[in-house]
């Protein structure tokens, strides 16, 4: 068997606690971008090509329409955002233009950036990468692979994190299709409508929450429902016993 000619970094998926710790050191821009990535399963390069009209924040769940000309595979697809990612994106929208104007002034002698950039995140991939490295260092989670000397928690782990969390709740094929893996796209879109895919995403959405984690009370609710049923049954039994006692008393009185 032929061995690979290039060593591969043994990366890993961050835990939810680690991811939250990383983002706590970030700016609004950082949180908006990385929560967008983690909740949509999109590649960073794809996200950086999105414009506002490609993201519909008025539906539930918020939908991202990815045209074929910006997707890695060349196939159009849809994905979604958590409410948490939506909140940070809206906060980013408030300061995006100020950020762009500042970037224009800072880079006018280097790359002549202009105000015509209509992307949601008007910066290059290397900016996103640099910010991620900064955040994992601040969180003291910047361990490196001893063989390749590359970071174990690199920026591409966000897609793996997305898949690991979503697959806890929804079918494998749908999670992979939402993430844009080509071999699953045709199968998913043949078997499910966009509305069904959105419904599946909503079922697993709570697993993609990072900053404002909501406790999963499903088991508790089921247990309380069972307890309520038991109480109703006990009440019915008590009512039947009381009825028998009263009937017995009436019979005794008639004998007397």
TrEMBL record:
Keywords assigned by UniProt? Coiled coil, DNA recombination
Keyword Zinc set for record: no
Tyr recombinase domain mapped to chain residues: 9-202
Q: InterPro entries given for it?
A: DNA_brk_join_enz (IPR011010), Integrase-like_cat_sf (IPR013762), Integrase_catalytic (IPR002104)
SUPFAM superfamilies found in the cross-reference section: DNA breaking-rejoining enzymes
Q: Name one GO biological process term.
A: DNA integration
Q: Cross-referenced PROSITE patterns, in alphabetical order?
A: TYR_RECOMBINASE
Q: Which Pfam families match?
A: Phage_integrase (PF00589)
Q: Which GO terms describe its molecular function?
A: DNA binding
Taking the record's annotation, the residue ranges forming a coiled coil are 217-244
Recorded hits in CDD domains, A to Z, give:
DNA_BRE_C
The name this protein carries in UniProt is: Tyr recombinase domain-containing protein
Originating species: marine sediment metagenome
């Amino acid at each position: 068997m032929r061995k690979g000619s290039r060593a591969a970094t043994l990366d890993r998926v961050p835990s939810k606690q680690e991811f939250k710790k990383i983002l706590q050191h970030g700016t609004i821009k950082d949180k908006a971008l990385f929560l967008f990535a983690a909740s949509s399963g999109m590649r960073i390069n794809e996200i950086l090509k999105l414009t506002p009209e490609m993201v519909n924040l008025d539906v539930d769940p918020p939908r991202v329409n990815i045209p074929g000309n910006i997707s890695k595979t060349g196939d159009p697809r849809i994905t979604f955002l958590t409410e948490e990612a939506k909140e940070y994106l809206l906060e980013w929208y408030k300061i995006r233009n100020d950020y762009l104007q500042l970037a224009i002034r800072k880079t006018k002698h280097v790359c002549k950036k202009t105000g015509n950039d209509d992307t949601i995140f008007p910066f290059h991939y290397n900016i996103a990468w640099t910010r991620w490295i900064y955040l994992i260092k601040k969180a003291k989670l910047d361990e490196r692979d001893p063989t390749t000397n590359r970071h174990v928690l690199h920026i591409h782990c966000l897609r793996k994190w997305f898949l690991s969390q979503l697959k806890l709740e929804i079918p494998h094929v749908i999670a992979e299709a939402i993430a844009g893996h080509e071999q699953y796209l045709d199968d998913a879109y043949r078997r499910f409508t966009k509305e069904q895919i959105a419904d599946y995403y909503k079922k697993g959405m709570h697993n993609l929450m990072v900053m404002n984690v909501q406790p999963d009370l499903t088991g508790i609710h089921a247990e309380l429902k069972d307890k309520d049923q038991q109480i109703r049954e006990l009440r019915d039994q008590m009512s039947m016993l009381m009825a028998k006692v009263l009937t017995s008393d009436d019979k005794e009185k008639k004998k007397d």
